Amino acid sequence: MLVRLLSLFLSLFLLSFTAFAQSDRGTITGTIADPAGAVVANAAVEAKNTATSAIYQAASSGTGNYTIAQLPAGAYEMTVNVPGFKKYVRGGLQVEVAGTVRIDVTLEVGSATESVTVEAAAPLLKTEGGEVSTNIATNTLDDLPILTRLALLKAYPAKEAVRRRSVVQRMILDYSKRVWFAAASAMQGRVPLPHRHLV
User: Fold this and answer.
1) Which residue from 142, 28, 177 is spatially nearest to 152, judged by alpha carbons?
2) Strands (DSSP E) along 50-182, which ranges?
3) How confident is the model at residue 99 (pLDDT cuts 50, 70, 90)?
4) Please, are residues 1 and 48 in contact by the beta-carbon 8 Å criterion?
């Protein structure tokens, strides 16, 4: 019985480390093309975090595709610079935790000193993946009873990763304290050890 309790405690302890594997990053990806629809290779792509002014750079591949991965969640402004084309600027991009934003760019012929600024809403159809997701604000999670909060965390496993990590760790710590206390009490003969569950 003691071996079971120790193996349970050890597995809960190791499980708490998997919560740290969650990422708080997102991705911007897409294709760059000219007005005729031909892909543009080696285009300089920059994503600027509007809150921190951090700049993340990439270049389009030979097939015109680009990907800027591991972006901290937040608002971004994206620019594309290619000699012989107008500078493309798109603001208002919202990168979410574990999310992918697809921005396909069609460049216009012109001087590099000219720019095309696009302010548009995100597309309704996400073609980058098959998941259906939503974000839940931290305040909303804090207002829920613990059992409902657990059900929501199971329903939305990738979103709110940072918040989920702390909630799960607190639950594991609380549960492991209960298991440890029950095992210690049973070893001293004060309290009979429960057979089925400790909660």
Assistant:
1) 142
2) 55-59, 65-72, 74-81, 87-95, 100-102, 105-106, 115-118
3) confident
4) no
d(CA 73, CA 165): 16
Residue of 54, 115, 52, 104 whose CA lies nearest to 81 = 115
Q: What angle do CA 22, 29, 70 make, to 5 degrees?
A: 30
**Chain segment 6-39, per-residue pLDDT in tens:** 666 666 665 655 555 557 889 999 999 999 999 9
Q: Which domains does the chain have, with CATH numbers?
A: 2-21+138-187 (no CATH), 29-118 (2.60.40.1120)
SS3 27: strand
pTM of structure: 0.57
Q: Is 173 helix (H, G, I), strand (E, B) or coil?
A: helix
pLDDT tens figures, 34-91? 999 999 999 999 999 999 999 999 999 999 999 999 999 999 999 999 999 999 999 9
- Give the separation between CA 172 and CA 148, rounded to whole angstroms: 17
CA 156 to chain centre: 12
